[in-house]
Design the sequence.
């Protein structure tokens, strides 16, 4: 017989198969997920989730699509976390030490508690990439935050109110625009797209049945 566990979604108890993820267990329990779900495979950051195991003190975080249910889990989702993204035009910025100080000065209030790193479902060194941002080392901040999926879980836990994913995003944008060498093939491809060189190919693709599009995608040539 299939092993079952008791979990609580938004405070209501459900008995669900132990092999399910939080996401599939919610669907098993009858929820239709419209928010808080996207790629279903740990890439999009839509399904940030907070849970606590009954009787344990620690508040845990994870992605609903990749975290397996456990007995006694009290679960709630945070499909959107209000991070604080400053408004800027990347063309007006300079990739220097002052840029973080001006746009995200709260990073200097970090108390080094490491709660952000512990909360990250991507196992990123979140506190470290904030430290690189403090020092104005935009390249290192960009590299360390490269796999950030913008789920906001780290920011939920930060006592300094830092919006980590937005800090990492700014560093990656500045790094891509001003620090890394230009990717000439990309510039060329963008020009081709803007010239309309692919318009007819796109129209042809859009007219195909969905299964044929899937086949084309699955058998596409992958750049090495
Ligand atoms: S750094 Fe923060 S926003 Fe990015 S993946 Fe980790 S927890 Fe999510
Ligand atoms: S959670 Fe906030 S205060 Fe704590 S280490 Fe991370 S950035 Fe610093
Ligand atoms: S649904 Fe995309 S990360 Fe979970």
Sequence:
């Amino acid at each position: 017989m299939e092993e079952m566990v008791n979990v609580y979604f938004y405070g209501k108890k459900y008995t669900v198969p132990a092999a399910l993820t939080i996401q599939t267990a919610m669907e098993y329990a009858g929820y239709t997920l419209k928010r808080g779900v996207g790629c279903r495979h740990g890439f999009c950051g839509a399904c940030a989730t907070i849970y606590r195991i009954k009787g344990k003190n620690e508040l845990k975080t994870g992605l609903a699509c990749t975290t397996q249910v456990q007995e006694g889990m009290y679960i709630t989702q945070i499909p959107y976390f209000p991070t604080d993204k400053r408004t800027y035009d990347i063309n007006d910025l300079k990739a220097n030490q002052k840029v973080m100080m001006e746009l995200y000065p709260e990073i200097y209030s970090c108390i080094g508690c490491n709660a952000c790193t512990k909360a990250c479902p991507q196992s990123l060194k979140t506190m470290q990439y904030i430290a690189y941002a403090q020092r104005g080392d935009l390249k290192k901040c960009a590299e360390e935050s490269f796999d950030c999926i913008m789920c906001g879980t780290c920011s939920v836990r930060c006592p300094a109110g830092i919006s980590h994913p937005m800090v990492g995003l700014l560093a990656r944008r500045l790094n891509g625009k001003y620090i890394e060498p230009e990717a000439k093939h990309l510039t060329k491809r963008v020009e081709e797209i803007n010239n309309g060189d692919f318009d007819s190919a796109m129209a042809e693709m859009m007219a195909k049945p969905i299964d044929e599009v899937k086949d084309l995608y699955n058998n596409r040539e992958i750049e090495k």
Remarks:
- The domain at 4-77 is CATH 3.10.20.740 (Ubiquitin-like (UB roll)).
- The beta strands are 4-9, 12-17, 48-53, 60-63, 73-77.
- Residues 97 and 137 are 7 Å apart (CA to CA).
